[in-house]
């Protein structure tokens, strides 16, 4: 059976949430999408996730929600991380960290899709070994899910590429997040695992990683702290649409997707609520 999974890049603030609310359901219907996975670690004011926004994402049509290095930025999400089964933080954090290692969604076709997030260790905060963690999780995941997607939330492209090769044939797809810049290296590895280094972001493209460009440029030039307000121009959804054979668990097709807000229904594909600004000078 063919299963289509739409993976959505980091949702940044209100503009990212708005375009999902307006355009996600029509894209899912038009393309026969069975499961939607979205990274939401920047969905609340540009940094973190709240319970209220988590609930809204489900209404928009997101089935599985992932988080990265900002998973605990909004502390009120911690109880939700413990109780909700569709929300995950990076699996290779401390075993004592709040939240779940993986999440599973049963599609309308009866096929189950699991997602695991691994956080990188190069240019990132300390974390446990992602290789050891995924090795420990895979036996359980293969018993509980038909299809496994692994998100690598990392800064270094080399770290993402290496994990992609390591997991070839072990999972259905490996996709990267965190840099907010989509890469053009989507492919299917030899053993059938779909791969892309980064799927980009969902938010204002007329920006520096979703933040007001003028403020970021001033901060870089002066080395002084500035508030990084959420930008609002040229809002887009960036992601990948992946087709997996549920019997072989291999990816058969992977394509980049860009959905532009200014032109409703204008989708480009490329083959193989707090709303408050974050007043730190960081992303």
Q: Can you give a write-up of this model?
A:
By secondary structure, this protein is α/β, with parallel strands linked by helices. The chain has a single domain, classed as Purple Acid Phosphatase, chain A, domain 2 (4-Layer Sandwich). The protein has six helices and 15 strands. It has helices spanning 13-31, 51-60, 78-83, 130-144, 157-166, 213-222, and strands at residues 2-8, 10-11, 35-39, 64-66, 87-88, 102-106, 112-119, 147-153, 173-177, 187-188, 194-196, 201-204, 235-245, 250-260, 267-270. The strands form two sheets. Strands 1, 2, 3, 4, 5, 12, 13, 14 and 15 form a nine-stranded mixed sheet that branches. A six-stranded mixed sheet has the order 6-7-8-9-11-10, covered by helices on one side. Strand 14 (250-260) and strand 15 form a beta hairpin. The longest helix is centred in the N-terminal third of the chain and has 19 residues, at 13-31.
Map the helices and strands.
Layout: E1 2-8, E2 10-11, H1 13-31, E3 35-39, H2 51-60, E4 64-66, H3 78-83, E5 87-88, E6 102-106, E7 112-119, H4 130-144, E8 147-153, H5 157-166, E9 173-177, E10 187-188, E11 194-196, E12 201-204, H6 213-222, E13 235-245, E14 250-260, E15 267-270
Parallel strand pairs: 1-3, 2-12, 3-4, 4-5, 7-8, 8-9, 9-11
Antiparallel strand pairs: 1-13, 6-7, 10-11, 12-13, 13-14, 14-15
């Amino acid at each position: 059976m063919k299963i289509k999974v739409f993976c959505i890049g980091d949702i940044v603030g209100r503009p990212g949430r708005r375009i999902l609310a307006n355009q996600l359901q029509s894209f899912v219907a038009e393309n026969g999408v069975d499961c939607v996975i979205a990274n939401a670690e920047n969905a609340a004011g540009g940094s973190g996730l709240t319970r209220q926004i988590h609930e809204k994402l489900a209404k928009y049509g997101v089935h599985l929600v992932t988080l990265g290095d900002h998973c605990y930025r909004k502390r009120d999400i911690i109880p939700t991380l413990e109780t909700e089964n569709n929300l995950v933080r990076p699996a290779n954090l401390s075993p004592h960290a709040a939240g779940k290692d993986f999440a599973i969604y049963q599609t309308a076709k009866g096929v189950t899709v699991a997602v695991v997030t691994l956080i990188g260790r190069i240019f990132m905060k300390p974390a446990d070994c992602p290789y050891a963690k995924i090795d420990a999780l895979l036996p359980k995941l293969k018993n509980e899910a038909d299809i496994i997607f692994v998100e690598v939330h990392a800064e270094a492209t080399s770290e993402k590429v290496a994990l992609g090769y390591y997991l070839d044939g072990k999972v259905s797809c490996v996709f990267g997040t965190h840099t907010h810049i989509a890469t053009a290296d989507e492919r299917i590895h030899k053993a059938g695992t779909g791969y892309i280094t980064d799927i980009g972001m969902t938010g204002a493209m007329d920006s520096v990683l979703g933040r007001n460009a003028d403020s970021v440029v001033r901060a870089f030039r002066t080395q002084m702290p500035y508030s990084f307000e959420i930008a609002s121009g040229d809002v887009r959804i960036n992601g990948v649409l992946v087709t997996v054979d549920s019997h072989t668990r291999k990816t058969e097709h992977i394509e980049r997707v860009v959905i532009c807000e200014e032109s409703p229904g204008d989708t480009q594909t490329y083959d193989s609520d707090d709303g408050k600004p974050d007043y730190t000078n960081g992303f």
